[in-house]
Amino acid sequence: MEIPNSELFSVLQEFNSWWSGQPISDLPEWERSASAAVWSWVQDRESRRSLLLTGARQVGKTTLYRQTIRRLLKEGYPATNILYATFDHPILKLAGLERTFRAWEELFPAAPEQPRMLFLDEIQNVPDWQIWLKHQVDFKHGRRIAVTGSASPLRSASAESGVGRWETIPLATLSFSEFLRLRGIELPPLPPVKSLRTLFDWEPIDFAVTASTARGLTVHFHDYLLRGGFPEPAMVTELSRCQRLLREDIVDKVLKRDMTAHYGVRRVLDVEKIFLYLCYHDGGILDLGMLTRELDGVNRQSALNFLDLFEATHLIYRLKPYGYGKEVLRGRLR
């Protein structure tokens, strides 16, 4: 479908207010820990690789990219050399990648002294985007491209397209430390722990002192678990409203829209049943035999397929078996 230039110009100017000299004023000053890795990619002008920021819906990917754009503008980067576009917008989705970029280049020819910076949101809505991105990295050397996706692309043949073409930064939900900073709760003076391995060198008195110092954080940790670790719900005062937002904006959209749109799932009822089962049986060894017995109409292969999809859309994380203990063998065989 041919989209009129005037429509595309209007949409792009709405998303890129800095082209007309307007500041980005609707962003928080607080940044996720992953912002350091994104900024490191921005500064690395030697590498031609693109950047893929992947994570669940509402985890802060768009905000992180817009904060990066704000920082670029503060450092004097040419405003018209920066493009932000989200491909869940119906006009841009219809126009496609190349048509969108031609409209941008018609509005603002490239400033030759700096590469063009492209920040593309929800890229999984564009058909064959992996092939397009591979071609850009291989042949368009005047562009630096950063994309986001709520559904993991690193599946089957698409993984091969990305080898050497993009680097991936997974953006998880808020860590407990980020949750406390977001809510303005000051951390007590706790000893630094670089890895769990260092805890093996602690004495019993070290554990006792740390537990006593951190005791006041217990209530906040329970609140953190109930709120799910997403930035916007974390700031909602009423807990019931927070959980409703989690269900409507994150779980329902992934189960009922992303699963069908990107992976062709038609058995939505089975998807919901398995996901609810996992919510009630998290944190332990998954017994597939028991799952299929308790959920009528769900066979083992379907359950395994849906587990892969849940992980691809960041609804669950799986810890693979480690070691050879009895519990590991029981979990593998059933």
Protein described:
The structure is a single chain. The protein has 334 residues and is of the alpha/beta class. Helices cover 49% and strands 8% of the residues. It has a five-stranded parallel sheet, with helices on both faces. β3, α6 and β4 form a beta-alpha-beta unit. α1 crosses α5. It is globular, with a radius of gyration of 23 Å. It starts with a helix and ends with a helix. About 2% of the residues have low confidence.
Task: Name the features.
single chain, 334 residues, alpha/beta, five-stranded parallel sheet, 16 helices
Task: Give a quick rundown of the structure.
Helices cover 49% and strands 8% of the residues. The protein is of the alpha/beta class.
Radius of gyration: 23 Å
Shape call: globular
Helix content: 40-55%
Secondary-structure element pattern, one letter each: HHEHEHHEHEHEHHHHHHHHH
Oligomer: single chain
Question: Count the helices. How many?
Answer: 16
Task: State the strand order across the main sheet.
Answer: 2-3-4-1-5
**Largest beta-sheet characterization:** 5 strands, parallel
User: What structural category do the secondary elements indicate?
Assistant: alpha/beta
Total beta strands? 5
Q: What would the average pLDDT be, to the nearest integer?
A: 84
How much strand content do the residues show?
5-15%
Unreliable residue runs: 154-160
Q: CA-to-CA gap between the ends? A: 51 Å
